[in-house]
Specification:
Keywords: Signal. With 321 residues, the protein is mainly β. The protein has one domain. 7% of the residues lie in helices and 41% in strands. It has one helix and 21 strands. The strands form four sheets. Strands 1, 4, 5, 6, 7, 8, 15, 18 and 21 form a nine-stranded antiparallel beta sheet that branches. A six-stranded antiparallel beta sheet has the order 3-9-10-11-12-13, with no helix packed on it. Strands 2-14-19-20 form a four-stranded antiparallel beta sheet, with no helix packed on it. The radius of gyration is 23 Å and the shape is globular. The relative contact order is 0.19.
Length: 321
C-alpha cells in the first residue's frame, strides 16, 4: 500500500534532479533563440568543428611580434603609445556596443630594438583600454607567448585570465575578474594575481563613465559562425566556417624598417598595413543558428570591431602558437 506512494515521491524527487543533470551536461541550443544581441567573436586562434562552437569562452595564445615601430607624432603631443595589439574579443549589441576584449599591447623599447608587451583588457563602454596595474604586470619580450582566456559567467560577470609560462618550475598567472557592481550602480574591476606562491588583490571602479549595466553576452549557448548564410530554399547552403584566423590590429602610424648594411645605407620602409600580404581584409562574422528545416537564422551582425584610428586585418599566417 505504501510502496506506490514512496515510489511516486522518489520519482518526483529524481525527475527534477535528472533534468538538472541533463541541462548541465547539454546546454539548450535554443536558450538564446529570441536574443538579437548575441554576437560572435572578432578573433580566434583555434580550429572549430564544422557544427558548433561555444562562444562564451575564447582561448588564444599570442607570440609577441618582433616589430620595429616608428611613432608618427602628428599632433605634437610626443606620446609613444603602443602601436601593435594582439587579442581576442567577445562582442554584443548593435555595432558592438558592449565588448569584452583582452590581449597584449606591444611597443619598441627603443627605436631599432625588439618590442616588449603588456597585458591589457577592455570592457566597452565602461572602460577604455586598461593595462594591468604595474604591481600585477609581468614583462613580455619578443617571441614570448601570452595565453589569454576570456570567459562569460553570466549577463553581469566575466573573467579574463592571462598566463605566461616562465619555466618548468614556476608559472605566473594574472586573473582579472570583471564584475558589474550593484552598489552605486557602478562597474567594479577586481584583479587577483597568483604566481610563485603569492597572491595579490586590486580593486578598481569606473570613475570616468556612469555607464548602464552592460550585458556580457548573456548565458552560454551553442552556436556556429559563418560568414554567409542560406537566405532561402533555392540557394545552396554554405558550410559553416571551421577556422578563425588571428587578427592583427595596428595603428595607422606604424612602419616596419629593413636595411642591408650601415655602410650602404640602404633602407626600405614599408607602410603598415598597406604593404602586408593579406589574405583578406576585415571580415565581420554573422552569428547564425541552424534551424531544424535546414535553413539558418541570422541572430546578429558583428559590426564595429574597428576602433577609431585603428585598422582591423586578417593575418595570412598565425601569430599565435
Amino acid at each position: 500500500m505504501h510502496r506506490p506512494r514512496i515510489l511516486g515521491r522518489t520519482i518526483k524527487l529524481i525527475a527534477p534532479l535528472a533534468l538538472l543533470a541533463v541541462a548541465g551536461l547539454f546546454p539548450p541550443a535554443q536558450a538564446n533563440k529570441s536574443r538579437k544581441d548575441l554576437c560572435g567573436v572578432s578573433m580566434h586562434t583555434s580550429d572549430l568543428g564544422p557544427e558548433v562552437g561555444n562562444f562564451s569562452v575564447i582561448d588564444a595564445a599570442w607570440r609577441v611580434p618582433e616589430v620595429i615601430a616608428e611613432v608618427e607624432d602628428e599632433d605634437g603631443s610626443g606620446r609613444r603609445a603602443p602601436y601593435v595589439s594582439l587579442g581576442v574579443a567577445l562582442c554584443c549589441g548593435d555595432d558592438c556596443s558592449t565588448r569584452l576584449a583582452a590581449g597584449a599591447w606591444a611597443s619598441p623599447r627603443e627605436p631599432g630594438r625588439d618590442s616588449s608587451a603588456s597585458a591589457m583588457f577592455q570592457l566597452s563602454p565602461v572602460f577604455t583600454p586598461v593595462l594591468i596595474p604595474a604591481v600585477h604586470q609581468f614583462e613580455l619580450n619578443s617571441s614570448d607567448v601570452l595565453w589569454t582566456r576570456v570567459e562569460i559567467h553570466g549577463p553581469g560577470e566575466a573573467q579574463i585570465t592571462f598566463s605566461k609560462f616562465e619555466s618548468a618550475i614556476s608559472n605566473s598567472t594574472i586573473s582579472v575578474d570583471l564584475r558589474v557592481a550593484v552598489k552605486d550602480g557602478g562597474t567594479v574591476l577586481r584583479v587577483v594575481t597568483r604566481g610563485n606562491g603569492a597572491e595579490l588583490e586590486f580593486d578598481y571602479a569606473a570613475r570616468y563613465r556612469d555607464a548602464e549595466r552592460p550585458a556580457l553576452c548573456g548565458d552560454s549557448a551553442w552556436w556556429f559562425v559563418s560568414d554567409s548564410f542560406d537566405p532561402g530554399q533555392d540557394t545552396d547552403r554554405p558550410l559553416p566556417l571551421a577556422r578563425f584566423s588571428p587578427v592583427l590590429v595596428a595603428g595607422h602610424g606604424l612602419r616596419t624598417r629593413t636595411s642591408t648594411t650601415a655602410e650602404e645605407g640602404d633602407r626600405h620602409d614599408k607602410s603598415f598595413p598597406a604593404d602586408l600580404p593579406l589574405s583578406g581584409m576585415a571580415r565581420f562574422w554573422d552569428m547564425v543558428r541552424a534551424a531544424p528545416d535546414g535553413q539558418t537564422e541570422v541572430l546578429c551582425n558583428t559590426r564595429g570591431f574597428v576602433d577609431t584610428g585603428m585598422t582591423l586585418l586578417q593575418s595570412p599566417h598565425p601569430w599565435g602558437v
